[in-house]
Specification:
With 383 residues, the chain is α/β, with parallel strands linked by helices. It has 17 helices and 13 strands. 44% of the residues are buried.
C-alpha cells in the first residue's frame, strides 16, 4: 500500500505508531518493545527512524524527511506532509488499524489524532503537545479526540485533567534506558581520545537545519574554551538521523554513543531539547543553546508563554543551566559560560551538579514504556 518503505499487511489488525524526530523514535522503540512483550501477535507500522525499524516496525516514512522544526521550515515541506497525511488517512480507512499511538510531533500528529477519532479508532497520545508553552487551546482539543493521554512531565497531568482528559503520568522514558556505559579507558580507546584529558561534549541537534545553525558556532565555542583549558578534547555526538558525512573534514572526534559521551564528559554544550534531560540524568554540567529561522523565532517570541526553554529549568522552576538563544548564540558567549563548568573546583559547577540531581529525582521512576504499553492493552481490550 505504501511503497518501498514498507507494506501494511491485511491479514491481522495493526497498531499505528507515529514518531517524527529522533527522540520520539527512541521513545517509540522502547514502547514498541514493551508492546511486543505484552501483545506478541500484533503488527506495528508507522513513521519513524532506525530505532523503530530495529523493533520490527514497518515504516512508510523516515526521519530524514520528517525532522523539521519552525514555522518557515514547515511551510517549505507542506506538499510532502500533505501527501503523507493522505496516505495515513487511506490506511485509517482500510479498517485494519485498531489503535493509533502518536508520539510527540504535535503539528502533524494532532491532525492524525482527530482523523482517527472521527473514524472511531482509539488513540493513545504518548508525549502530548507542550500546551503549557504555547497554544493552550490544544489541550482541550486533544482531550476531545484522544482516548487517553500519557504525559512524561509531572506538572502536565493537572493541566490535562483540568480540561477533562483521561490522562496518566507515566514517568519519563529516558529513565527506562538501562545503559551500561563503558569505562572511561574503554570509551576513550575506542573513540581515539586520551583518558587523561577532559572532554567537552557537543550536541548540535538531530535535524539537518539544526546542524547547519549550530555546528560551526558550537565548535567555535569549544575551541575558544581551549584557551583556558588547552588539554580539552572536543567530541561531537552524532544523532542517528544525521548522516556521518555531515561531519567530514572537521578535525574533531565524532561518536554515535551520546550517552557514554555524556557519562565521561566534564561538561557539555547542548542544543535545547531532549538531550538536555539526558545530560541532567548523567549529572553532566552543561550550557544549552538554540538558533532557529529568524521568522520562526519572531513568531515564537510572541506565541510562547514561558520564560524558559530548557526542560531542566522548567522542571526546576528556576534557572539551573544557562540558556543562550538566537543572536546571543556566539562562540564568545557560550565559551564564557562553559569555562567555569570545566573547572572541577568551580562553585558554579558544584552547584549545578547538585541542582541536576534534584531535577532527576522529580521525574519519577523508571517503567514509562511498560506503563504506556499497559494503557495500550486496556484500549485494545486486552487483560
Amino acid at each position: 500500500m505504501f511503497g518501498s518503505e514498507g507494506e501494511v499487511g491485511r491479514s491481522r489488525p495493526t497498531i499505528l505508531v507515529l514518531a517524527g524526530e529522533a527522540s520520539g523514535d527512541q521513545h517509540a522503540a522502547r514502547l514498541i518493545r514493551a508492546l511486543m512483550q505484552r501483545c506478541p501477535g500484533r503488527r506495528v507500522t508507522g513513521i519513524g527512524g532506525e530505532a523503530m525499524r530495529a523493533q520490527g516496525v514497518e515504516l512508510f516514512a523516515g526521519l530524514e524527511k520528517l525532522a523539521v522544526m519552525g514555522f518557515a521550515e514547515v511551510v517549505a515541506r507542506i506538499p510532502f506532509f500533505a501527501q503523507l497525511e493522505r496516505r495515513i488517512l487511506t490506511l485509517l480507512d482500510s479498517g485494519y488499524i485498531d489503535l493509533v499511538i502518536p508520539v510527540d510531533y504535535p503539528g502533524f500528529n494532532l491532525r492524525i489524532t482527530r482523523a482517527a477519532h472521527q473514524r472511531g479508532i482509539p488513540v493513545l497520545y504518548y508525549i502530548p503537545p507542550k500546551v503549557w508553552a504555547w497554544r493552550p487551546s490544544r489541550a482541550r482539543r486533544l482531550a476531545k479526540t484522544a482516548d487517553h493521554i500519557a504525559v512524561i512531565l509531572p506538572f502536565e497531568k493537572k493541566i490535562f485533567e483540568q480540561v477533562g482528559a483521561a490522562v496518566t503520568f507515566v514517568g519519563h522514558p529516558l529513565l527506562d534506558e538501562k545503559i551500561s556505559n563503558p569505562d572511561r579507558e574503554s570509551f576513550c580507546r575506542d573513540s581515539g581520545l586520551d583518558p587523561e584529558h577532559p572532554i567537552l561534549a557537543i550536541f548540535p541537534g538531530s535535524r539537518s537545519q539544526e546542524l547547519s545553525r549550530h555546528l560551526k558556532v558550537f565548535l567555535g565555542a569549544g575551541r575558544l574554551t581551549m584557551t583556558n583549558h588547552p588539554r580539552l578534547q572536543l567530541v561531537i555526538a552524532r544523532a542517528s538521523s544525521i548522516h556521518p558525512s555531515s561531519f567530514n573534514e572537521l578535525g574533531v572526534t565524532v561518536v554515535d554513543d551520546g550517552q557514554s559521551l555524556l557519562a565521561h564528559a566534564r561538561a557539555a554544550l547542548v542544543k535545547s531539547g531532549t538531550s538536555t534531560l539526558e545530560a541532567a540524568l548523567k549529572g553532566t554540567p552543561f550550557v544549552t543553546a538554540y538558533r532557529m529561522n529568524p521568522l520562526s523565532f519572531f513568531l515564537a517570541e510572541r506565541l510562547v508563554q514561558i520564560d524558559r526553554v530548557s526542560l531542566v529549568n522548567l522542571l526546576a522552576g528556576r534557572d539551573v543551566v544557562p540558556e543562550v538563544l538566537q543572536n546571543e548564540v556566539t562562540p564568545e558567549r557560550m565559551a564564557e559560560l562553559l569555562n567555569p563548568l570545566l573547572d572541577v573546583e568551580s562553585s558554579i559547577r558544584e552547584k549545578m551538579v547538585t541542582d541536576l540531581a534534584r531535577v532527576r529525582s522529580s521525574l519519577g521512576e523508571s517503567g514509562a514504556s511498560v506503563r504506556v504499553a499497559q494503557l495500550a492493552g486496556e484500549l485494545l481490550g486486552e487483560t
